[in-house]
Amino acid sequence: MGKRVAVVGFGQTKGRSSRKDVNGQELINEAVVTALQDAELTIRDIDAIVIGNMDHFEGINYVDTWSVEGAGGVMKPIFKVTTGGTTGTTVAMSAYYHVASGMFDRVLAIGWEKNSESDTTGAIITAFDPVWERPNLGGAVAGLAIEASKYMSNYGVTERDGARVAVRERLHALNNPYAHLHQEWMKGIPVDQLVDLIVGSEQNVMLAYPLRMSDMCPRTDGAAAAVFASEDVAEKIAPIPAWVLSTVNRHNFALAGDVDMDRNTTMAKASKKAFEKAGIKEPLKEIDVCELYLPYSYAGLKWMEDYGFCEYGEGPKLLWDGVTDMDGELPVNPSGGVMSSNAIGATALIRVGEAATQVMGKAGTRQVPKDVNIAFATGFGGCYWADVMILGRRKPA
Amino acid sequence: MEKNEQKKNEQELLTVTSGDMFQPYDWSVGLFGSRFLAELRDNKKIYGIKCPKCGKVYVPPRKICGSCYVAMDEFVPLSDEGEVYVCTIVHFGFVDPETGKQRPVPYGYAFIKLDGADTCLTHFVNSTDPEKFKVGARVKAVFEEKRKGSIADIKHFDIID
Predict the structure, then answer these.
(1) Which chain B residues have any C-beta within 8 angstroms of a chain A C-beta?
(2) What does the mean pLDDT of chain B come to?
(3) Which chain B residue lies closest to A21 (C-alpha atoms)?
(4) Which terminus has fewer CB within 10 Å in chain B: N or C?
(5) Which chain B residue is nearest to residue A152, measuring alpha carbons?
(6) Are B88 and A153 an interchain contact pair (Cβ–Cβ within 8 Å)?
(7) Which residues of chain B form beta strands (DSSP E)?
C-alpha cells in the first residue's frame, strides 16, 4: 500500500492575463517560494521535484532543464510530466507516488503556464492528431462547445443554466485574491438578475455556438506549487496536513471523434473508483467541498451528474437550488475555479492546492463556512480524460 | 514592496518575437491509413474498420481496438451520408498551426456519425445557421475535384434535410 502522504504546503501566483515582468523561470520561482513559506520549509528540505506545463504553449520544451534554478531543482531528482489539461493533477499524483513509494519524504509538485506567450488555441490544436483531426479542430473552445451542443440537445438545458454556473464561479472568485477575473460589478446584484444581464448582454460575444465569452475560462499567466510529505514528517511540518485519501486517473480514446459525448465517461469512472477507495458511499453528503476542473459553464451541470452528485439531467436543479454555492450543502469552487483563472499547466494543481487549503483551514476569505473533513479535486484534459484526488483531514487507516 | 511594484510598472517591459518559423513534418499514416486515404482520393469512398471482438466500426481505420485490445483487419465500406452527432459554429479567430495564419471564421464544425460507423469523423459542415446545423441533422460528404490523399479530399459536409 505504501506510505501515507499529505499535502503540507501550497503556493500560487496571482492570476494575470500577462506577466511581462517575469519570464517562465521567475514565475515558477514565485510559486515555489510561496509554497515553501507556507510549509515553513527551505529548498534544502525538498528531496525531489515533479514539474509540468502544456507542451508547445511557450514554444520551449524541457522545462525541467531550463527552469531548474527557479524551480529549486539544482542537483536534485527532477522530472517533467505533461498530460495536457490534467498536467497539474498529474504532477500532484506523481509527487504523491514518489512519497508513497517510501523513496522520498518531501516532494515538490509544480505546474505553470504563460498563456500570453502564444496563441492558446493554435497551441492546443497541436496536441491533436495531425492527419485526421487538426485541420478542422477549433481548440478547446470548439471542443467544449460540441459537448454543450449534445448536453443541451439531450436535456433541454438552456443558456440561462450555463450563465448560472458562470455567475457562481465569478461570484466566488471575488473572495479569492489569487483569481485572475475579479468582476467587481457583480457585487450586490441578485443571482437571477446577474444571469439575465449576462444572457442579454450584446458585449458577451459568441466564441463557438452556443458558447459565449461568459461561458469560457480566461487565458492566464500563473504558477502553483505544492509540497507532498510522508507520514513520517507530515505532522511535524503542518498542524493540519491534508491527507491524500485516494487518487485515480483514466484515459479513454486517442481520437476526439471516438469520444462518447453523452457522458463524461472518464470523469465518471475515475470519480467512482476514487470514492470507493476512500470509502465514500454518498458523495453529495460526505464530501464537504469541491475544487473541480470545470473549464466552461456547461461542465458545471453535466459533469456534476457524471461525478454522481445527482441523477442524469438533474445538474441544473442542483445548481439553481444553491446546493453548490458557498453556503450550500456542497460548495463547488470557492476559489472561483477554472472559469476565473486558467494558467493551464498550473490549473489542476491549483484545484488540488485549493482543496488542501480548505482541509487545512487556511483558505482565508474563501474558506467555506463549515468543517472540511473531505475535499474533492479534479483535473480534465483534451480528449476527455480525467484525474481526481480526494484529500481529507483524518489520517487514512 | 508596493514601491517596487510601482517601479516595475513604470519600467518598459520587453518581449522578443520568435519570427516566422517553418517546421516541415512527414507523418506516416500506416497501412490502414494509407488505404483509407487512397480510397478517398481514387474512388471517393469512405472506409471504416470493424473490431472482431466487440463489432464496433471505427472511422478512420486504425489497427487496434483500444477497449478490447485486439488487432482489427476487416475494412467495411461506409456511406458518405450520416448524422451530426455534436456540433458548433466557430466564431473566434485563432492561428491555425497547419498554416501559421488565421483560420477563416465563422465555420461549421461537427463530429459526423456516418451511416455504418460507430465513431465519428470530425469535419467541416457547410453551414453557420444554428437553426439548420444542429445535433441530429443529416449531412452528406462533398468531395474536392482534385484529390491528394488527405482528409481534406472531403471538402466539407452539406446539410441535406
Answers:
(1) 8, 13-15, 18, 25, 27, 29, 33, 58-60, 62, 66, 85-92, 94-98, 103, 107, 109-111, 119-124, 130, 134-136, 150-152
(2) 93
(3) B13
(4) N
(5) B135
(6) no
(7) 46-50, 57-58, 64-65, 70-71, 74-78, 81-90, 95-96, 101-102, 107-114, 121-125, 138-143, 154-159
Q: Which of B65, B86, B128 to mutate to test the interface with A (most CBs of A within 10 A)?
A: B86
Torsion region of A332: left, alpha or beta (phi above 0 gives left; psi -120 to 50 gives alpha): beta
* A285 reaches B (C-beta below 8 A): no
Report angle CA B59, A383, A143 to the nearest 5 degrees.
90
Of A139, A115, A110, A107, nearest in space to A125 by CA: A139
A126 vs B contacts (CB less than 8 Å): 97
Q: Cα separation of A345 and A186, whole Å?
A: 28
Residue A155 in contact with partner chain B when CB distance is under 8 A: no
Instruction: Give the one of A138, A147, A257 whose C-beta lies nearest to B119's C-beta.
Output: A257
Peptide bond into B104 cis (omega under 30): no
Looking at the predicted complex, does its ipTM rise above 0.85?
yes
CA triple B91-A140-A219, angle to 5 deg? 90
Q: Does A383 touch chain B (CB under 8 A)?
A: no
User: Could you tell me if A299 and A169 are in contact, meaning their C-beta atoms sit under 8 angstroms apart?
Assistant: no
pLDDT in tens, A139-153: 999 999 999 999 999
- CA A194 – CA A198 distance, rounded (Å): 6
Residue pLDDT, tens place only, A258-282: 999 999 999 999 999 999 999 999 9
Could you tell me the three cell numbers for A117? 506567450
Contact B89 A119 (CB under 8 A): no
Alpha-carbon gap, residue B29 to B27, rounded angstroms: 6
Is 60 exceeded by the pLDDT of residue A366?
yes
Nearest CA in chain A to B95: A122
pLDDT-derived band at A343 (thresholds 50, 70, 90) equals very high
Query: In angstroms, rounded to a whole number, what is the distance separating the alpha carbons of residues B68 and B51?
Result: 8
Which triple of cell numbers denotes residue A157? Answer: 438545458
What are φ and ψ of residue B141, in 5° steps? -70, 140
Cα separation of A227 and A44, whole Å?
13
